[in-house]
Amino acid sequence: MNLLLGIIYMAFISLGLPDALLGAAWPAMHRELGVPVSYAGIISMIISGGTILSSLNSDMLTRKLGTGKVTAFSVAVTAAALWGFSAAGSFPVLCLIALPYGLGAGAVDAALNNYVALHYKARHMSWLHCFWGVGASIGPYIMGACLVGGRAWNSGYRVISLFQIGLTALLFVTLSMWKHSAAREEEGQAGARLRLPDLLRLPGAWAALAAFFCYCALEQTAGLWAASYMVMNRGMSAETAAKWGSLFYLGITAGRFGCGFITMKLDDRAMVRLGQAVAAAGILLLTLPFGEVLTGIGLVMVGMGCAPIYPALLHETPDNFGAEKSQAVMGMQMACAYVGTMVMPPLFGTVSGAVGIWLYPWYLGAIGIVMVVTAERLNKIRGGRQ
């Protein structure tokens, strides 16, 4: 049991490792490939599309193969795609490989999150997503070390691929360990597979999907545009803004570590509300003309507020919809989260280009209000069922 939990922690690190690689490597990649800087968005959207597709099919895959095999095969596909990136010599080849890159990530993300929600306490969900943040931080560091050391960007992808290959071998060797907690897992496999229209008719489904969409839209928009807002609206230097921007992600990662202990006192619903309150206070600070330091503190508070929301929403899925439906609902929620990530940050870029970057905290605030309303709607529906 403890060994399996350790393997799951390693798997969450592996989920984070590739996530920030493209951004770290692209300044070197686009020059070598001879394509514009903006083409990174094309690759990112293809990866996101594959992730959404595999998330929606995670219930079918998990029913057929089980969580352990889905995790092992998905990591194997991701490892192969990363190796393919390292060997790619042209932009069209990268686009082709980006699809299995995304397909591997989506299925394992949905399957692992549901498995943890079914079998482990809330603190582990929070700490596991903290470890995802560790992986997401290590990936760019490895890429940077390769580039600074005189190697090409291909080397960074190859190193991460080798790590994933090693994890794949470990996952296949330890497949038998995933059969613990059989009673609730069998409950999760009981009944006919629900189609997407059936899932959307479940009480609370639309509220849950909107909450996940808004959370990821808030987190990704806040992180992507933070430095631009500080430079263009608050007059900070690019170096100072970049430092505060990195602290936003540190706030999420450190916050999730701390929230793992707080979950021993508060339930999932209370954790979501706590995170929303802290994020709201941070957004408010971003609107006030209190100088560089307090603006930066506001951004870090938004990150710390984000920390408990996503893990708590994920962990309460079996309680909200039942263990027998949780994998199907989890896949749908993850797909909606990825759509929020893919759509809302670029939308802000378009809107701010027309209106002004000053809109940044108000845009975040609007997303946050919708998230609070939909999360409370889900709570109300859940309360009515109990």
Describe the structure.
It is a single chain. By secondary structure, the protein is mainly α. It contains 17 helices and no strands. The protein has helices spanning 2-16, 21-33, 40-56, 58-65, 67-87, 91-119, 122-148, 153-173, 182-189, 196-200, 205-232, 238-262, 268-287, 292-315, 317-321, 323-355, 360-385. Helix 11 packs parallel to helix 16 and helix 11 runs antiparallel to helix 17. The two termini are 31 Å apart. The model has no long low-confidence stretch (mean pLDDT 87).
Taking the alpha carbons of the first and last residues, their distance comes to 31 Å
Determine the mean pLDDT. 87
Percent helix among the residues?
over 70%
Report the major sheet: none
Q: In percent terms, what proportion of residues is strand?
A: under 5%
Derived from helix and strand composition plus strand pairing, the structural class reads mainly alpha
> What's the shape?
globular
**What is the element string, with H for helices and E for strands?**
HHHHHHHHHHHHHHHHH
**For the CA atoms, what is the radius of gyration?**
20 Å
Number of strands: 0
| Number of continuous helical runs | 17
| Unreliable stretches covering 5 or more consecutive residues | none
